[in-house]
Amino acid sequence: MNLKKFITLHFLLSLLQVSIVSAQVWPGPHPLLSSHIKMNVESHIASQVDTLEDKFGYEKAEIQFGFPLYKGKDWLTSNGNTPLIGVTLQGAAAIIQPVGGFLSSDKLLRARLGSNFIYSKGLRNLYMVSLQGILAHELNEISLNGLYMNGSAFWRHRQNDEFDWTVGVAYTSVYAYNKLLPIIGLQYRPTKEDLISILLPITIQYTHFFSNATSISATIKPNGGFYNVHYPENDINDATFRHKNMLIAVILNHKLSYQFSIQPELGIQTNTKLFVNDFSTQSATSVFARIAFRYKFGRRVNVAPILDFDPADFTTADSETPEK
Questions:
Q1: Which helix (H) or strand (E) holds 187?
Q2: Could you tell me if 195 and 206 are in contact, meaning their C-beta atoms sit under 8 angstroms apart?
Q3: Alpha-carbon distance 230 to 224, whole Å?
Q4: d(Cα 301, Cα 298) in Å, to the nearest integer?
Q5: Largest CA-CA distance found in the chain, in angstroms, rounded
Q6: Is the pLDDT assigned to residue 10 strictly greater than 80?
Q7: Mind listing the pLDDT tens digit for each residue in 166-219?
Q8: What is the distance between the alpha carbons of residues 149 and 178, in angstroms, rounded to a whole number?
Q9: How buried is residue 74: exposed, middle or buried, by Cβ count under 10 Å (0-12/13-18/19+)?
Q10: Contact yes or no for 97/104 (Cβ under 8 A)
């Protein structure tokens, strides 16, 4: 471990120790109604690429944010015959450092910016449309030819306190190619301490709540995307690099204070399929680790339960455990 990584790790552990000592635990601010910022760092250990001498892996640092642009006057309750209408803005920027030699050592940039339109009339039905632009390119050669769109549209119905379901469509690049896929999902609470969340093809997750402050989740989710890169092998100067795999992980979610939470994650990534233009290969199964910090601004409010979710669940593969 080099000095820079050691100092960073020491700082994060010190921050965690101080936060735990001073923590007071409450249910956090609502993800739909509160502005938030999330920072995470992760490492995907490089593994052997087929029969080549090279390996493929990467390290990643990302910052995400979200805040409401418009909140209707009945945003907090959505009751009676007055519909709730809201517009939120979400975005993220990530720096990816490939390791292992399969790609050059140049850093990659992945940035996204989008908006969510939310409509709910009554307490049981919610409709949402999301659209976002994504820029994925080498950091030192950014251009708009790396820009593409993702989006989703869905209907969420809350049957009761134990069960709700979702149907819709998603146009997503999480499987390395832009694809139009159906969304079929459900959430089921067999007990107050347990939650089963299935949102195909995005994620399958089981969560156990130890308290309002702490929960642990087991999840399966896709991980992938594509980038415009400079690939010098075989005279390929401008290429599209694609990767995809499945992540099987355990996530600990702990609220250190009213607004601040920490999410360490550890798991296995399946064989990673790699594509550079028409050339394809794969790297072996490996492990990955991630730690995320989230801060939500404002105070939690009483809202219709149909709104108790994070719209990022439907726009990225990085879903958030719903509030208890």
A1: strand 179-191
A2: yes
A3: 19
A4: 9
A5: 65
A6: no
A7: 999 999 888 988 999 998 988 898 998 898 989 888 889 999 999 888 999 999
A8: 9
A9: middle
A10: no
Q: Token pair of 16, please?
A: 């965690």
pLDDT tens by residue, 257-302: 878 889 999 999 999 999 988 889 999 999 999 999 988 886 655 5
The answer to whether 247 and 217 are in contact (CB under 8 A) is: no
- Which tokens go with 10? 């020491």
For residues 260-284, one letter each, b for 16 or more C-beta atoms within 10 angstroms of the residue's C-beta and e for the rest, the string is bbbbebebebbebbbbbeeeebbbe
User: Could you tell me if 86 and 70 are in contact, meaning their C-beta atoms sit under 8 angstroms apart?
Assistant: yes
Question: pLDDT tens digit string along 38-88?
Answer: 999 999 999 999 888 889 999 999 999 988 888 765 444 545 556 778 888
Q: How far apart are CA 39 and CA 292, in angstroms?
A: 6
Task: At 84, give phi and psi (nearest 5°).
Answer: -90, 130
| Tokens describing residue 64 | 């995400």
Are 22 and 264 in contact by the 8 Å Cβ rule? The answer is no
What average pLDDT does this structure show over 238-254?
A: 91
